Amino acid sequence: MPVSDTLSYSVCPGEDIHISDFYFRNGDVDSSKLGLRASGAVRVCSNMGEALDVSIQFTSCSRHAVLEIYDGAVGQQTRLARLTDTNYWTVTSIRAVSGCVVIAYNDDGRDSCASMMSVTVQDQGVGNYQAYNITGVQAELDWSDPDTTHVWTVRYGTSPNNLSNMVHARAHPFVLRGLDELTTYYYRVYRNDTVVCTAAECPPPSFRTICDYEYRECPDFTDFSSCRVTCYYGSYGNPRAAVGVVDYGSGSAASRHTVHTN
């Protein structure tokens, strides 16, 4: 199989990449997909090393055109399938368990003929994240997982590059508790505690908590910016004409909202 002229792509957990309408005639290829020669390849790898499901449709009237699918990194591939002109619009579903798949096209250009294909590679990791029923202190998280995992690791934090908090979930939906109100949280779900992917590789999903209107502690009357405090200002006849905090300071300036002591 060709190892030069190979373009590489990566996918995040639960995501897929679709490469369609490869078109070859007289040895020409779509250089945006397979490189610059009649013989080229696409390598797709999972950022998390998860298994990849590959769905391929292929047709060719050239006896010298071959589409081959390999599982594994360069130099360590196992051929999973070989499609030729006899596979007219064959739908082939293949699983690459190594986390990398190579789709190689070979054509010596001897036939004035065309080959077309449609390829979808899907990462079999955790995906389809959802966050709902969000309050000021908790959020309900859900996800999909094609594996039969029974314990998941939920990593979360207030920075996409630092998911420093960790809890374990034995089922989903899962309620994440002990959050701070009016805060954006980033999170990701893993099947184990050790393998992680960075935000640069796979940006984590996020949600933002709301004001905790059921706050049961003593109210802080010195915090006019609290989401549980609404300040108004206006004229003598209409003191609620507008919403906001107006503090002009001390002295002769008119002060609407001022904390004089705590």
Topology:
Blueprint: E1 6-11, E2 16-25, H1 31-34, E3 40-46, E4 52-60, E5 65-71, E6 78-83, E7 90-96, E8 100-107, E9 114-123, E10 127-132, E11 139-144, E12 152-157, E13 165-169, E14 174-176, E15 184-190, E16 206-208, E17 232-233, E18 242-243
Parallel strand pairs: 1-3
Antiparallel strand pairs: 2-9, 3-8, 4-7, 4-9, 5-6, 5-8, 10-11, 11-14, 12-13, 12-15, 15-16, 17-18
Task: Describe this entry's structure for a reader.
- The chain is mostly beta strands.
- 2% of the residues lie in helices and 42% in strands.
- It contains one helix and 18 strands.
- The protein has one helix spanning 31-34, and strands at residues 6-11, 16-25, 40-46, 52-60, 65-71, 78-83, 90-96, 100-107, 114-123, 127-132, 139-144, 152-157, 165-169, 174-176, 184-190, 206-208, 232-233, 242-243.
- Strands 1-3-8-5-6 form a five-stranded mixed beta sheet, with no helix packed on it. The protein has a four-stranded antiparallel beta sheet with strand order 2-9-4-7, with no helix packed on it.
- A hairpin with a 7-residue loop joins strand 12 and strand 13 (165-169).
- The longest helix has 4 residues, at 31-34.
- The chain is elongated, with a radius of gyration of 29 Å.
